[in-house]
Amino acid sequence: MAIIVVLTGSYLGYQQLTDKGCTGQVPLNVAAAPEIAGAIESAAQQWVTDGANVNGTCVAVNVSGVNPATMAAAIAREHGVQINGLGNAPQSVTVPDVWVSDSRTWLLRLKKEASGFAPADGTPVAQSPVVVAMPTPIAETFGWPNKKLGWKDLLDKVLKDNNIKVGTVDPNRDAAGLTGLLALGASAGTGAKSQQAKVGALRALALGSSALRDDLLQNFPRSAGPADLAGSLSAAPLSEEDVIAFNAEQPAVQLAALYLDPAPPGLDYPYAIMPEVDLQRQAAATGLRQALNSANFKNLLAKAGLRGPDGTVGDGFSAPVGAPAATKAASAPPADPNKGGAAAAGGVDAGAISQALGSWSAITLPGRALAVFDISGSMKEKVPTAGNLTRAQVTQRAAQGGLALFDDNWSVGVWVFSTELVGKRPWREVVPISPLTSSRNELNAATAQIVPKDGGDTGLYDTALAAYKEVQNDWVDGRINSVLLFTDGKDDNPNSIGKDRLVAELKRANDPKRPVRMVIIGIGPGVDRKELETITSATSAGGVFIAPDPAKISDIFLEAISSRNGANG
Fold it and tell me: Which of 139, 188, 256, 413 has its CA 20 to 30 A from that of 534?
């Protein structure tokens, strides 16, 4: 009977389409963020009922709700890469013809890791501002809803008031969490004191972080009692839609949505047609996207707690108290997702995302790293864009800033290299790989030894091999075991083992059961990318990251920490 019902339903659906003058079937599979999937499915059903076709062939649309992190992992798998923090997608999750994630940041992250990922279209089909969600009794202590607040106000409160417990959904897995991380970090400003504030804010967010949005929401208070309020989550970056959906359940304590200044980029739900979709399905996908421009779709979005892509709303939209007026958003037009360095709505680019996630990884993931610094004579060269500090001095600052980010779960060691530092040996151990819990001060002091050797050449090959074996020899399970090597030149050591022997030795040492990430950060224009890539490609993981302007070493370092694959500089 079930089979008969299914077949009868399929036949009636087919008859409806043929009555509109089309035959056959063009299947179109759409994966969408769960909160928008229902609205897209309803609009697609109406479009099909109205006679959706491609040159006379009927279109059949299947819409499924898929967490954006899960789908991003599946797409990464198809391109042979991994996205940091996502893990592996279940084999049952397949890449659709159209993907409507909740944010363009997913497209930027995929494009940065997978050069072959070039989706078409990318037009936003909805919008939801990113807000800071707070239990209303706590929000009132901030002056809500009458006082206009900024991210700097939140940062100051977090750093000074231990009673404010902030949290976030893991920004590797959640676009609103990522946006909140970017906004809070930007509010810290620049400079040494600002770096300390940024680190403090990140650590506070990490203490209250959750892997899943539903888990985070469970951490908000369930009653207005003082003890419950004091022991529960006080604030977290979420989407406006999250707050609307949470309050619709009529909890004992409602959430206030704080729209902080400056307004960060909101979730923009880009409509991305996946690469390698054939022309017929591309045409069907374009037709469906055009169908989503209707007033009816905006009404469907309103019922789901979402705004239209221009910020206007459909019938029945219930905005949180203090929400901005439902008018067109004063933001820059969305960028072309096919361009690797394109900016997301509001000006967020792939580099800024990588740097933010690199900071997060350093703070939240346990790791073990050997930092190896070039002290050849060329490191004396001055950097005009860094106030004429030398390359070595700029590298010292980057090392100190990176060390401040690393959580106590990390173990770090320091080497320096040039030529003939210990007899004919080109490298010297400054501090062995040691837990930061006991060696942070010693490691900070060790950065002062990043001093160029007069007349020293670059003993790159011997040092790279020795560093790799050093990390592998005492490899620790459950941690990211890495070599982080900084250099500004090519191997010119007269006693070098040579490139061919280095590659052969690295391949021989490579053990998939004990992977070591070989990350090389090139400083300035004198490095040979191909030479460095030859080294890293002989290992199981890692990559080459180039800072043509040495003043940008800190940014490139954070990008390297956040990546699971090689990347362009």
Answer: 413
